[in-house]
Automatic annotation (TrEMBL):
FAD binds at residues 53, 141-143, 311, 317-320. The active site is a redox-active disulfide bond. This is Dihydrolipoyl dehydrogenase. Residues 6-326 form the FAD/NAD(P)-binding domain. NAD(+) binds at residues 178-185, 201, 270. The gene is lpdA. Its EC number is 1.8.1.4.
Length: 463
């Protein structure tokens, strides 16, 4: 250790990096974490998961009051939007949580190296003009918005997710480019607050990668909510004049162009890994075609002592996946066995209703072998019905021979909470029968998972 400054230097303090740093320190390793932002927590806490959920929660409550949903329950209120206060509570949530990570760093004696880190060798990095040598370096630099060629993001009229979280007033018309997770979540926020929202999606369905039936149902529900969906459509240009945008679109397969006038345009066509400025070549590292750093099962990069986790490596760009990889990599560095089961990573879209999934889609499961599928509509779930939340369903996919659960897909008001039991069941290797014979509390939305599991063998009770 004598000529090393640290056992571990983690580059990036997002959910991957800060968790790796804390676990490494807990395991007795002398640890530092380089972060160039003014606050810790990465994309997720500063401009991602947390602020978006703060706006989703507040806008959902506003919509319940403003749209008359509450009045139908006998709650009458005069509703007025105070957007400044709504933004204030978002900023408070971010401040509280990012400050919390700073506290945890101090508590666990993780040193924060403030500034951009760049490799100067296989075991050295430079941060803010100072050189540090470490036995292990973990790259956890995350991702940034993918730009759309020819469309300039000014974060005022044409915004990324970061600008879309902070719009100072509700746009009359918001055009969302990309019907993925960010487009639907942030589109929902501004739709609920009064904007007309048009989603332009290149593919013929929203939410690529999700189960086919779920994608169709989601489109039906968002349309019913008043979102305009332009599927199989591509954006060929955006011009901005006098604070307004003109978006030119045409059919993805080619054809006549049309223009959409918008007060704001959200570019949400995906995210790409952050490796620029790291001087990877000085450490003997390269990236793959998608700009990601390839890793082995243990999160090693192939260069001894250099590891990588989170959005910068292949796999879903999700905070909890990054966190679990952060714990695993620290444990591997400490000589323990850190494992992440990448087959069981849940994903949640926090719209209303929520959309959640874990494991294989029906399409992927069928491509691998014979399956049995059980479905149960939320309309027949007593709690969802009582709460006036009839939209959506649960689908359980099981191996036809072994009955082992291969995937669970849910659209329901609280799908994000429901999916945890499915992930746990799959992690324990459950069969659909195991779920069907597990006692579920009544009345809960989760009973729909039990019924969908019963439906795998054709025996649900309430339908
Ligand atoms: P990041 O969180 O991106 O952190 C990387 C950090 O590294 C950054 O702070 C960056 O400043 C720093 N950095 C980069 N390069 C350097 C360098 N050279 N030197 C020093 N520091 C550097 N995921 C979910 O699971 N649930 C959600 O609800 C969710 N909502 C999201 C909403 C939005 C609007 C967005 C944009 C993303 C959302 N995500 C969500 C995705 C989630 O934010 C990411 O998957 C997660 O943050 C990845 O964690 P990470 O640690 O790999 O990287
Ligand atoms: P995404 O990959 O989810 O969706 C991008 C969409 O844009 C796709 O549907 C794609 O077909 C479409 N698209 C691509 N190019 C296009 C073009 N030129 N014109 C029209 N459509 C085009 O990416 P998104 O929404 O930007 O989110 C990035 C990542 O952030 C996601 O992969 C997700 O992992 C993460 N995230 C997770 C959240 C969550 O877990 N709740 C919330 C927000 C983001």
């Amino acid at each position: 250790m004598s000529d090393y400054d640290f056992d571990v230097i983690v580059i990036g303090a997002g959910p991957g990096g800060y968790v790796a740093a804390i676990r490494a320190a807990q395991l007795g390793l002398k640890t530092a974490c380089a972060e160039s932002r003014e606050t810790l927590g990465g994309t997720c806490l500063n401009v991602g998961c947390i602020p978006s959920k703060a706006m989703l929660h507040a806008s959902e409550l506003y919509d319940e009051a403003a749209s008359g949903k509450l009045a139908k329950l006998g709650i009458k209120a005069t509703v007025e939007l105070d957007l400044d206060t709504m933004h204030g509570q978002r900023r408070d949530a971010v401040k509280g949580l990012t400050g919390g990570i700073e506290y945890l760093f101090k508590k666990n004696k993780v040193e924060w190296l403030k500034g951009l880190a760049a490799f100067t060798g296989k075991d050295t990095v430079e941060v803010a003009g100072k050189s540090y040598r470490a036995k292990n370096i973990v790259i956890a630099t995350g991702s940034s918005v993918t730009p759309l060629p020819g469309v300039e993001i000014d974060e005022k009229v044409v915004v990324s997710s970061t600008g879309a979280l902070e719009l100072p007033k509700v746009p009359g018309h918001l055009v969302v480019i990309g019907g993925g997770v960010i487009g639907l979540e942030l589109g929902s926020v501004w739709k609920r607050l009064g904007a007309k929202v048009t989603v332009v999606e290149y593919l013929d369905q929203l939410l690529p990668g999700m189960d086919g039936e779920i994608r169709k149902e989601a489109a039906k529900i968002f349309k019913k909510q008043g979102m305009e969906l332009k599927l199989s459509t591509k954006v060929t240009g955006v011009t901005v004049k006098g604070g307004k945008a003109t978006v030119t679109v045409e059919p993805a397969a080619g054809g006549a162009a049309e223009t959409l006038e918008a007060d704001a345009v959200l570019v949400s066509i995906g995210r790409r890994p952050n490796t620029e400025g790291l001087a990877l070549e000085r450490a003997g590292l390269t990236t793959n075609k998608r700009g990601q750093i390839e890793v082995d099962h243990d999160f090693g990069t192939g260069v001894p002592g250099i590891w990588a986790i989170g959005d910068v490596v292949p796999g879903p760009m999700l905070a909890h996946k990054a966190e679990d990889e952060g714990i695993a990599v620290a444990e591997n560095i400490a000589g323990l066995t850190g494992i992440v089961n990448h087959d069981v990573i849940p994903g949640v879209v926090y719209t209303f209703p929520e959309i959640a999934a874990v494991g294989l889609t029906e399409e992927d499961a069928k491509a691998r072998g014979e399956v049995k599928v059980g479905k149960f509509p939320m309309m027949a779930n007593s709690r969802a019905k009582t709460n006036h939340e009839p939209d959506g369903f649960v689908k359980v996919i099981a191996d036809a021979k072994t009955d082992r659960v291969l995937g669970v897909h849910i659209i329901a008001s609280v799908a994000g909470t429901m999916i945890a039991q499915a992930a746990q069941a799959m992690e324990f290797g459950a069969t659909s029968e195991d779920i069907a014979y597990t006692c579920h509390a009544h009345p809960t939305h989760s009973e729909a998972i039990k019924e969908a599991a019963m439906a795998v063998t054709g025996k649900p009770i309430h339908i």
